[in-house]
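Next comes one such specimen:
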Amino acid sequence: MKTDLEVIDGAIDLVSKDGGWCQGTMCRDSAGLPGPEAEQPVSFCLEGAVRYSATSNESVWIYNRGNQALWDQVERVNEVIATACGWDFVRRFNDSKSTTQEDAILALKTARTILEDK
């Protein structure tokens, strides 16, 4: 299992790419298909980026909750991101009309700093 910092770093890498961030769904593929229909996701919401980064097996990243330690980690990292952006839930921040890709990246980088200081 990756460390929390490795998960954040992976999420930063995913969301920082040109077109790597999305709203309203966990992910999108290059054709714009959302969520589970996206076989090869190219853009992610913050929560989707954390889930994708945390899992080693790409086929289970969206819904499989068989590994409780992994999902505890995802929840823990999402809570740090929520603290970093000052919102109660990451999804609300991510999907706000006022949130930009730059805001999402800044939230991840701030969360990384919080984790480093722990």
Notes: The two ends are 19 Å apart (CA to CA).
